[in-house]
Write a structure and sequence with these properties.
Layout: E1 2-4, E2 10-12, H1 25-38, E3 48-50, H2 54-70, H3 78-81, E4 82-84, H4 86-98, H5 102-116, H6 119-131, H7 148-160, H8 162-171
Parallel strand pairs: 3-4
Antiparallel strand pairs: 1-2
Helix pairs in contact: 1-2, 5-7, 6-8
């Protein structure tokens, strides 16, 4: 929950964790309603932020319908209650953009994976780093395909070691 207190100070709190038996609309609506009721927040709700999954859209629409039937006042009005997570949307946009350079990313990923899979290869790579006089403590990292920032980190680190990869490929 994000809220502003009487002194206009922004607060961010995790209210609770609930186990949801499934990601079906009815289960999401039930757990969301239960959490908001327990905390006395139903009448104070401004918006619900979710990713773009279809079940979340369905659940939010159903939940808003329930709120309209049981509450006479929606703080933000119905049109602003369901908000899609900008970070999730940005992640999807970036991944679409990364598809354009997918072959290059896959080549870097394969090279990093190849080196990291073997202690002896990693040792040879470090020897090439020393030989190339690269002054960096950054270690090679594989990305997590669902997190573009990890792909950025993998590519940034690989770029630092670009000449090392070339030297390594000639040596190996």
């Amino acid at each position: 929950a994000h809220f502003i207190d009487n002194d206009w100070k922004l607060h961010k709190k995790i209210l609770n964790f609930y186990a949801i038996s499934s990601h079906k609309c009815d289960d999401i609506v039930l757990v969301l309603g239960k959490c908001l009721e327990e905390w006395g927040l139903v009448s104070k709700l401004y918006n619900i932020m979710v990713d773009n999954a279809a079940n979340n859209d369905t659940a939010c629409n159903a939940f808003i319908g329930d709120l309209k039937r049981h509450c006479h006042f929606l703080f933000s009005g119905e049109e602003f209650l369901h908000v899609r997570c900008v970070a999730h949307i940005l992640n999807l946009v970036v991944w679409d953009g990364l598809k354009v350079v997918g072959k290059s990313i896959n080549r870097v990923r394969a090279a990093v994976k190849f080196i990291k899979q073997s202690p002896s290869r990693l040792q040879r790579f470090h020897e090439c780093v020393v030989a190339e006089k690269i002054d960096s403590k950054a270690s090679l990292s594989l990305d997590v395909p669902t997190r573009w920032n990890s792909t950025f980190k993998m590519l940034s680190t690989a770029l630092v070691y670009e000449h090392v990869f070339t030297k390594y490929s000639k040596r190996d």
